[in-house]
Design a protein that fits this description.
Number of strands: 12
Radius of gyration: 32 Å
Helix content: 25-40%
Largest sheet: 6 strands, antiparallel
Shape: elongated
Number of helices: 7
Strand order of the largest sheet: 1-12-2-3-5-6
Strand content: 15-25%
Length: 339
């Protein structure tokens, strides 16, 4: 009897030991499976994130191409609807002057800042040129007079007439009179890039429009119904100020960018330490630094004003000048004069 009990005890101990070993084995296998599942989940998430980034980039690329295509169509439609012979010849001259660079452009991208691809037929243009008489004296010329008007802007002189028309269209609703003229009060190439000089030249002159050129390629700026002064007044409120972009990244069509809310107490920042500043208070929507032509501090990042087409909502804005921070090559300021 005692022998049987002892054997039963050994059997129970062996069962418990076997169960412990089995439990340990199962736990070990479960741990291995959990690790495999965790690793696999990480690989899947990494692959999904990579695919999501690729899809996002493809979507943004398609959006940019769609915007460029729309810009091309709108520009072509506008030229067909509104252009006269002089306008057509102007575009012809621009295309002919850029033939070598246009030939290197991809076929699915706009070939000029206006966002339109043109096929040049030399025989056709030659015959048309003979039929059209252009008064050279009526063409835009660039002077250094204090009374230079917007139509003779040095920045816009190398661009097509459609850009001037778009800018005048932006300004028309805020003009004080149909007979108003926009007279230049500041030119960085003529007056220098010192912020204090800008304020001296533009002191008390409002409404005004600021034109900025970067690399001779990008053109943008802002309108303010509030004067720039020598008084270091800081933030100034406005209901009518707006930014605009004329020649921008990827050939997007010219766009007017109003304040998101009106009036806005951070519409402009008036201080002699800086050039024209639009928006704030944390980041400036358009900031032109002191001696901007010699540094890369000036920037665009619209928050108080609407963001342009093609700009993301959570990152630096490179639509205006190709990069968020830039070095302008020219800036002009025109103020409204009512005759």
């Amino acid at each position: 009897m005692a022998l049987l009990e002892k054997a039963q005890q050994h059997l129970d101990e062996n069962k418990r030991a076997a169960r412990r070993d089995l439990d340990q084995f199962i736990d070990k296998q479960i741990g291995a499976l959990e690790k495999m599942r965790s690793d696999l989940r990480g690989e899947i998430e990494s692959a999904c994130q990579k695919q999501e980034k690729q899809l996002t980039a493809q979507r943004e690329n398609l959006s940019m191409r769609l915007a460029s295509a729309r810009s091309s169509l709108e520009f072509a439609e506008r030229m067909c609807r509104e252009a006269n012979d002089v306008d057509v010849l102007s575009i012809r001259n621009e295309v002919l002057s850029q033939l070598s660079s246009l030939a290197e452009k991809p076929v699915d991208q706009p070939c000029m800042e206006g966002g339109v691809r043109l096929v040049v037929d030399q025989e056709y243009w030659s015959s048309m040129s003979k039929k059209i008489s252009v008064d050279v004296s009526s063409q835009v010329s660039v002077g250094e007079s204090e009374h230079t008007v917007l139509e003779k802007s040095a920045i816009l002189s190398g661009k097509g007439p459609e850009y001037l028309r778009d800018l005048l269209g932006f300004l028309q609703p805020v003009q004080q009179s149909p007979k108003s003229r926009w007279v230049r009060c500041f030119s960085a190439k003529r007056d220098g890039w010192a912020a204090r000089t800008f304020h001296e030249k533009c002191n008390g002159k409002a409404p005004n429009v600021v034109l900025v050129s970067v690399g001779g390629r990008y053109v943008f700026g802002g309108y303010s119904d509030v004067a720039w002064t020598m008084s270091d007044r800081g933030w100034q409120s406005s209901s009518r100020s707006f930014l605009f972009t004329l020649c921008n990244k990827n050939g997007y069509r010219p766009e007017k960018l109003p304040l998101r809310r009106t009036p806005d107490e951070y519409a402009i920042y008036d201080h002699t330490s800086f050039g024209p500043v639009f928006g704030g208070p944390v980041f400036s929507d358009l900031f032109i630094d002191d001696n901007a032509g010699g540094n890369e501090v000036s920037c665009t990042d619209p928050l108080m004003y609407a963001r342009p087409q093609g700009a993301t909502f959570d990152g630096p804005c490179d639509v205006f000048a190709g990069t968020c921070k830039f070095t302008p090559n020219e800036m002009e300021v025109f103020h409204e004069v009512v005759d």
